[in-house]
Design brief:
By secondary structure, this protein is of the alpha/beta class. It has four domains: about 70 residues, Signal recognition particle alu RNA binding heterodimer, srp9/1 (2-Layer Sandwich); about 180 residues, P-loop containing nucleotide triphosphate hydrolases (Rossmann fold), CATH 3.40.50.300; about 70 residues, Helicase, Ruva Protein, domain 3 (Orthogonal Bundle); about 200 residues, Up-down Bundle (Methane Monooxygenase Hydroxylase, Chain G, domain 1). Helices cover about 50% and strands about 10% of the residues. The strands form three sheets. The protein has a six-stranded mixed sheet, with helices on both faces. Strands 1-4-3-2-5 form a five-stranded mixed sheet, with helices on one face. A three-stranded antiparallel sheet has the order 13-12-14. Strand 2 and strand 3 form a beta hairpin. Helix 9 runs parallel beside helix 10, helix 12 packs across helix 14 and helix 14 crosses helix 15.
């Protein structure tokens, strides 16, 4: 049975404030059964009661009197209208004469007047004196400032020590705690990563029935490391484990441990594990573990001693607590190659679970989950949508469904159609469409031939992905047009010939500009950068150069799940080898460039036809593009047959 989360204050000042407020420190009395509630004395109750008594004394007990000025009061005395008086040190209370009964009660402020008493004697008015009771005023004059002071002091102390951003709470773990009733996510909400779910099912079974494993002497892994690309569902999977097991879930980011103050990170680690042990069985989840667990000594020049101290404390805590306590530590990262080896050894993060990008069946299952609350048109085929989104992770697919619904709502449709999904996919892949961007006719013609060159080469080479759409509508920040290729199946390896075909497709746009205009533009900058990266990787990483042989010339730690966009290589080869590498990269690029030129020279007529259609329609896709591709392939087959004979 999972325990309820109970937040216990360890600060003496917090305990005093709880006592002052009339709480017991063992939870909120309002959450108890009404029959078990007890009344707690509080200073605030006493103050409210005192103010209520003073108000009753002033406005209800004492009779209401008419307030008059002192001059008017003396005139009534001279006229003989006053029946009786009570003289106080500050006020004079009296009653006017009236036939047949008591008269009007009045009061006035007493003025230092020596003539008043002789005047009363001369008029025969009865008068008496009294001493005013000032204890309520005196008491309030002390209690009200004290109450204001206590209230202000309580507010300041809460700001300094009670809240998560307080000055005195820097050593407390800023952890987000989800009780077992709040975790509504289960394995039914996770799709596309069935292998990872199977791996974690054992964790759920242990948290539910630990005796099943302890009976045979087995020990559950202390830590589970979820490794995968961003957006694949690592955090969602950890929450699903907590939801399935019905245990509290402690979530914290790796960057939240480290502060500018020395020792704060280690204190937060200790506080986190102390809270977890109190609420065991539970799950501790540390997101972005690489921010905290980077290998010590990886950067000795710019090292951060505070981060290393925090990591050391985490290692000690993971190695020290009893595995029978039922505290499971889960962490997520997309850069496992930079983690400290001490974190990955058995006894700490024992189990590594790969959360990979989903395949086509996984993408279809993810789309079904995100489309449960979306009104889809009858013609929407999620399998086709999954096929046209290779490389998409769970977060991308969720965004795709949401964007499609927004597009349909913008167009006042009753349902979300396939056209909405296609437009949403184009927006996610290529960026926002900018139809209002004005391009002069010359630039538009250059872009049309450039994209036609990409598409025509992709249709001609045997190992390129099929072309699904060609457009010269500007998208995103700098894209003036794009050629979309969709693979027919999920691929995990690429051969040398496939990489060469990809190079030819990348260079096809620049070659088309050279052939048609006899000049080149800056539009091929991104194509050249990608082509150069592929060619250099073929030589330095994949050993695909016959001249240099099956060797690799890079040793930098690269993430298999995160494309950093840059590489810092440590050269461990001579200048002669570096020159050979540059020459091989140049040779591969030039070879692909020449093959692209040969293809476009052979299909120059098709190139001009496709560019003309693009200039007229701005976008070509669907059956029209497939028919054009069939013509290109038939022409290529006839040419190959003629060359053979």
């Amino acid at each position: 049975m999972a325990k309820k989360i109970r937040h216990e204050e360890s600060n003496p000042m917090d305990r005093f404030m709880k006592h002052l407020k009339g709480t017991s420190g063992e939870g909120d009395p309002r959450g108890q059964d009404p029959s078990q509630r007890r009344f707690h004395f509080s200073f605030w109750y006493f103050l409210v009661a005192l103010l209520l008594v003073a108000w009753v004394q002033t406005y209800l007990v004492e009779p209401q009197r008419e307030r008059v000025t002192y001059s008017e009061f003396k005139q009534w005395v001279r006229d003989g209208r006053v029946g009786s008086l009570i003289l106080g040190p500050e006020r004079v209370r009296g009653e006017l004469k009236q036939e047949g009964g008591s008269g009007i009660q009045f009061t006035t402020v007493r003025v230092e007047d020596p003539e008043l008493v002789p005047l009363l004697d001369s008029k025969g008015i009865q008068y008496s004196g009294y001493i005013e009771n000032k204890w309520i005023a005196v008491l309030l004059s002390w209690l009200l400032p004290m109450a204001v002071f206590i209230l202000l002091w309580s507010f300041l102390m809460r700001k300094m020590s009670g809240g998560p951003q307080g000055v005195l709470s820097v050593g407390k773990a800023r952890v987000k705690i989800f009780a077992e009733q709040e975790m509504e996510i289960t394995f039914d909400d996770v799709a596309g990563i069935d292998e990872a779910k199977t791996e974690l099912q054992e964790i759920v079974e242990f948290l539910k029935t630990p005796e099943k494993y302890r009976r045979l002497g087995g020990k559950i892994p202390k830590g589970v490391l979820l490794v995968g690309a961003p957006g694949t569902g690592k955090t969602l999977l950890a929450k699903a484990v907590a939801g399935e097991a019905g245990v509290p879930f402690f979530s914290m980011s790796g960057s939240e441990f480290v502060e500018m103050f020395v020792g704060v990170g280690a204190a937060r680690v200790r506080d986190l594990f102390a809270q977890a042990k109190t609420n065991a069985p539970c799950i501790i989840f540390v997101d972005e573990l690489d921010a905290l667990g980077k290998a010590r000594g990886l950067n000795p020049v710019g090292g951060h001693d505070e981060r290393e101290q925090t990591l050391n404390q985490l290692l000690v805590e993971m190695d020290g607590f009893d595995p029978r306590a039922g505290v499971i530590i889960m962490a997520a990262t997309n850069r496992p190659e930079i983690l400290d080896p001490a974190l990955l050894r058995p006894g700490r993060f024992d189990r590594h679970v790969a959360v990979d990008k989903p395949d086509i069946r996984g993408r279809e299952a993810i789309l079904k989950i995100h489309a449960r609350d979306v009104r889809l048109a009858p013609e929407v085929d999620l399998k086709k949508i999954a096929a046209m989104t290779p490389g998409f992770v769970g977060a991308d697919l969720a965004n795709l469904v949401n964007e499609s619904a927004l597009i349909a709502a913008r167009r006042d449709r009753e349902n979300v159609t396939m056209a909405d999904f296609h437009e949403a996919a184009d927006r996610i892949i290529g960026g926002l469409e900018k139809k209002n961007r004005a391009m002069n006719p010359k630039e538009k013609e250059i872009v049309a031939y450039h994209e036609s060159g990409h598409a025509l080469v992709a249709m001609s080479v045997p190992r390129a992905d099929p072309v699904s759409k060609v457009s010269i509508i500007p998208r995103g920040i700098a894209a003036l047009g794009y050629t979309q290729q969709l693979p027919t199946e999920d691929r995990y390896l690429m051969t040398r010939n496939e990489l060469m075909d990809r190079l030819q497709v990348l260079l096809g746009g620049r070659v088309a500009e050279e052939m048609i205009f006899g000049d080149i533009s800056t539009g091929a900058q991104n194509d050249l950068q990608r082509a150069t990266d592929i060619a250099r990787s073929m030589v330095t990483e994949y050993g695909m150069s016959e001249r240099l042989g099956p060797l690799t010339y890079t040793r930098d730690p690269r993430s298999a799940h995160l494309d950093l966009g840059f590489r810092t290589r440590e050269r461990e080869y001579s200048e002669q080898t570096a020159q050979s590498i540059d020459e091989e990269v140049t040779r591969i690029i030039e070879e692909a460039h020449q093959k692209s030129r040969d293809i476009l020279n052979e299909h120059r007529e098709h190139l001009q036809r496709l560019a003309k259609v693009l200039l007229e329609k701005e976008s070509v896709e669907g059956e029209e593009l497939r028919e054009f591709a069939r013509e290109v392939k038939e022409g290529l087959a006839r040419h190959t047959e003629a060359a053979t004979h």
